[in-house]
Structures are given as C-alpha cells and as structure tokens.
Amino acid sequence: MKELVVETDGLTKRYGERLAVDRVSMTVERGEVYGFLGPNGAGKTTTLRMMLGLIRPTAGSASVLGRPAGRPEVTARIGALIEGPGFYPYLNGRDNLRTMARYQGLPNAEVDRVLEMVDLADRAKDAFKGYSLGMKQRLGVACAMLGSPDLLVLDEPTNGLDPAGMADMRALVVALAEAGQTVILSSHILAEVQEICDRVGVINQGRLLRESTVAELRGAATLRIRATPEDTALAVLMRMAGDEGVRRVGNESLEVDLPASAAPEVVRQLVSRSVDVHQVTVAERSLEDAFFEMTGTTSTEQELVS
Ligand SMILES: Nc1ncnc2c1ncn2[C@@H]1O[C@H](COP(=O)(O)OP(=O)(O)OP(=O)(O)O)[C@@H](O)[C@H]1O
C-alpha cells in the first residue's frame, strides 16, 4: 500500500460567516506531484496553511507524515513556498540562503546543493534585488528544499511569472518529482496541472469536488471518425462499441467510445465493409473541460486561466 504523506479528514475552516474550507478529506501519497486545483478564493491556501499548522482548523483534522499537522517535528519535515518568501534585497542569493540554513542548523554545503538544484548556482553571488521574478521564485523553492524535506508545498509557484519563468518552474517541479520528491502544488492554471501532476484534487467554494489521477479526471479518450456512407459506418461502429458507444457529432462526424489503440482495427473494419474513411482523430478531454463539467461554470465566471 502507498504511504500517505498527507491525510485530511473533514478539514474545515470558517472565518465568521464565510466557510473557507468545507469538510475537505484528501490524501497525498509519497513520491507524487499532487495538484491542488481551484479558482481564486476556492480555499487552497487556507487548506495548505492548516496542513502546515499555520492556522487551526475549525473542525476536522490534518495529519502529515502520520502525525497531527502543526507539531514542530512535522513542520520541520515540510518545505513550503507560500505567499512569496521574505529575502533580504541587498544580500546575494547564496547569503540569503546561508542565513536561512544557519537558522535551521544546516551546513553551507546544503545551500550549494539546493542552488544547483534550482539552477541558480551561477547567479548565487548577485544581489537578490536584481533577480527576475522567476529567479526569486526559484530561490524560494531552493529555500524550501533546504534540509531535503519529505514534503514540498508550493502555493501558486508560477503566479506572476512570464511564460519562460513558468516553463522554468514547471521543469523544476518535474525534476524534483523525478528525484522522488513529494510535492503539493496549488494552481488555478489547469493546463499546468495537467502537464506536471500525477493526481489532482479539485476544490471549489471550499469543497473538494473530486480527487483522482489526471487521466481519470479527463475520462477516456474517444475516436472521431468521418466516413461515408455514414449509415454503414454507424452500423460497423455500433457493432464494435455498442449502440450507446457511438454518437453523431456535428454534421459529418461520429464519436466512438473506443481508445486510440483501437483506431487501426476500426479503420480495417470500415474498409472491409467498403466504407471510405476520410478522417480519424483521437478526441481527448482537457482537464479544463472536465473542471467546467464538474463545476458547471465558465472560465470567466471562475477566473480560471489556462
Ligand atoms: N484570514 C482570513 N479572514 C477572512 N477570510 C479569509 C481569510 N483567509 C482567507 N479568507 C477567505 O477564505 C476563502 C478562501 O481563501 P483562500 O485564500 O484559501 O483561497 P485560494 O483558493 O487560495 O485562492 P487564491 O488562489 O486567490 O489564493 C476566500 O473567500 C477568502 O476571502
């Protein structure tokens, strides 16, 4: 069985009348990149803060590494980048990290290790204030990685970055994941989560709507086929995918509930019945489609960016 690094049970946070987090029960397994996905104000940061023991839940519980969240020995095993780290602007990157490392009783060699990891070793002697936003964020991740934490929590790590900075940050998370690091990454950017996460928790208005792998969330792929005569094509496809497994899409295409791997056999069967196959494409739902289906809202209403 997979080891759970995080497990929350009915985790709830109320601010006066506002229910910021509403009975969230989620799990994060060791070694995975968990995408915590939801629009602005959904309750992501509040949930993460409870996991880190920065705020207390109104009800429910969070356990991290098998212990109640907030215990000092647990917090010491988590590296977090939440709401931008506070660095000294006139100190260089390395000295900023050395200050943090000293505070945690870590040697200077550990600073050099994490600087390499985030690809900032070459710029380590430059003053922090001269760094680009992307470099500042990467230094924040380096800081969170000091002491090799069991869990890395990144709250909207690409927020405010330009496309190149975002790509760098995504590559960094992928590299960390490949090195076996467990990561929770919150984001409102669906395409980003789809690209780098193993599993996703979708949160909206404080409620966890779904927790699953990206593939499960998107559902099975379907085949889109344009073939004539359509009636014969329909009969062949229904024999292969069942009556319920074939639909007309638009004027000319048929959608079939079969995986991409079935495409060659589908074409063979159609051709053997003298059907002309004009086009076969694999139609995959994006995470964005799945999200909107779940929440029943449009991107403008949800302030989601993809
Ligand atoms: N300290 C607080 N006092 C009162 N309300 C709060 C507080 N912190 C958060 N909230 C409210 O709780 C809800 C959830 O906020 P939270 O910051 O957790 O959302 P989020 O998903 O992280 O959003 P974002 O992507 O904008 O950071 C919001 O309605 C927010 O206004």
Overview of the molecule:
This protein has 306 residues and is of the alpha/beta class. It folds into two domains: 4-217, P-loop containing nucleotide triphosphate hydrolases (Rossmann fold, 3-Layer(aba) Sandwich), CATH 3.40.50.300; 221-283, Alpha-Beta Plaits, CATH 3.30.70. Helix content is 36%, strand content 28%. It has twelve helices and 15 strands. It has helices at 44-51, 72-75, 93-103, 108-117, 133-145, 163-178, 190-196, 214-218, 230-241, 263-272, 287-295, 299-302; strands at 4-15, 18-24, 27-29, 33-37, 59-64, 67-68, 78-81, 151-155, 182-187, 199-204, 207-213, 222-228, 246-249, 253-256, 276-283. The strands form three sheets. A six-stranded mixed beta sheet has the order 7-8-9-4-10-11, sandwiched between helices. Strand 13 (246-249) and strand 14 form a beta hairpin. Helix 3 packs across helix 4 (108-117). The protein is elongated. The two termini are 34 Å apart. The model is unreliable at 298-306 (pLDDT under 50). Bound molecules: adenosine-5'-triphosphate (ATP). Residues 15, 18, 20, 38, 40-46, 188 line the site of adenosine-5'-triphosphate.
